[in-house]
Design goal:
The model has no long low-confidence stretch (mean pLDDT about 95). The chain is mainly β and about 110 residues long.
Length: about 110
């Protein structure tokens, strides 16, 4: 199993970013997936979840209405569209299963300046 996150960067508050998670080593089209994030000094937290079809999604209250999770099973890739970014969204973002395995990718850094 491998997860490769990308798309992070430095953005001003109110800006947007689109993260990607390229997955391999398993049948991506059969797996629910989740975005996580970890801010400095804090525990990793769940951000958004998507079922294997892409039809059902769930969001943490802190990102609801601003973030959109999606997936392209033909490309084995999951996305996170992040709009109206806030400084509190600053974190390293990771993808994994909803019941995460011990393997984690390198993550992608998102920094939101005020």
């Amino acid at each position: 199993v491998q997860f490769v996150e990308s798309g992070g960067g430095l953005v001003q508050a109110g800006g947007s970013l689109r993260l990607s998670c390229a997955a391999s080593g398993f049948t991506f089209s059969s797996a629910a997936m989740r975005w996580y994030r970890q801010a400095p000094g804090k525990e990793r937290e769940s951000v958004a979840t998507i079922d294997y079809t892409g039809r059902f999604t769930h969001y943490a209250d802190s990102v609801k209405g601003r973030f959109t999770i999606s997936r392209d099973n033909a490309k084995n890739t999951m996305y996170l569209q992040m709009n109206s970014l806030k400084p509190d969204d600053t974190a390293v973002y990771y993808c994994n299963y909803p019941n995460p395995i011990d393997y984690w990718g390198q993550g992608t850094q998102v920094t939101v300046s005020s």
